[in-house]
Amino acid sequence: MTGPEPRIGAVGRLGGPGAPGRGGTGTGLGLGDTASENALLIGIIEAISAGPELEVLAAKVAPLIVAATATDECFVHVLDDTDRSLTLAGATPPFDREVGRIRLLLGEGVTGWAASHREPVVIVEDKATDPRYRYFPELHGEDYTSMASVPMASSPGGLVGVLNVHTRARREFTDRDVRLLTSIGSLIAGAVHQARLHRRLAARERAHERFTEQAIAVQESERRRLAREIHDGITQRLCSLRFHLDAAADALTEEPAFAGEQLVLARRLTHLTIDEARAAINDLRPPVLDDLGLADSLASLARSTVGVEVFVEVDHCVLPEHVEIALYRIAQEALQNVVKHARASNVRLSLRRDGHEVSLEVTDDGRGFPDDGAPCDTDGAAGFDSVDGVDGADGTDRADRGDPGDGAYGGYGLGSMAERTELIGGRLDVRSQPGQGTTVVAKVAVHAL
Fold it and tell me: 426-432 and 357-364 as β-strands: parallel, antiparallel, unpaired?
């Protein structure tokens, strides 16, 4: 049975009627005096001052909340960087071992409902019968009777997560109880927001470092490949061309027919050498960008993609050169992955500018893959191969979200897409479901260009 929706008024001085100790029955949350309030505030300040790491903050505030509210357990769920799901970032023992492992999409479970509706939830008893409730065996929900769930929000950051408290005994959480929880959530929401920003910055720095390492490795690999191709291809053909021209020159007066044959062979070698040189140049930089611009280059790329029908919708956007190259390469890698892995028939490629944002989107109707709502974080490209998500709330890398059977959507390309997007100040988002295709979206703010 679900208790009545709590009414949230203006939050005043922290406090409430007295309550028994942890696990007891009653209606209060146990902050009935100034000393208790001060102790809580000092504890929160110390937790915030411990450092910018999100998991450290959540781990320190969870027991403080339990002590302040006379409840039995506290769970701190934090919104991920794509604002699509919540991850358990802190909990009271023994559930702290589940940090980073419990994930809920917005709207999923009581926690997800509180986040998506920005409203508190109180369940006094029989929570299993509430349609919003989702059972996690790891959290032993059957051992706890009552719960209160409040969204955490701050003025600069908006919604940052959800705060849950649970009691073994039946508890009638009052409006004052919920106001207290909301006040605590507001106190730590700003710090959580800053911790999320710190995590994003750290992820960006790691992505930049890794991309730099990969760029150097790729440069050296490309240099070796070009040296090998020039030696084995262009150089050998030029040597052969010189041989045929020398033979033609020697036989020009005495054997004109033979000289003519040598000139024909020399012409063929000239055409092959020119083609190889153009291919090498195209590998270094797509010349089509210089000739056509980004929009028409994407249309040309779509026409040259074999195996699928590519429908193109592009706006002519004037962007910096390095951004155009990055978006072109992202589209190129996305289409290559569709051809190699998606088993798709149709692809939609679009480039749109909407106010202060440029969006490149590649959507296919292929087989797709499971999407658990993990962020596509640039520190590992969650949802794909390395990307990410995307990092969860615990900051860990998410990897190999492709088809586990054959490595579909795996490989360097997809991680590179996320890193390319991050390096031009954008973000990569990936959405997919089995049998429903995949959508890859790279978004870049205009002011970041």
Answer: unpaired
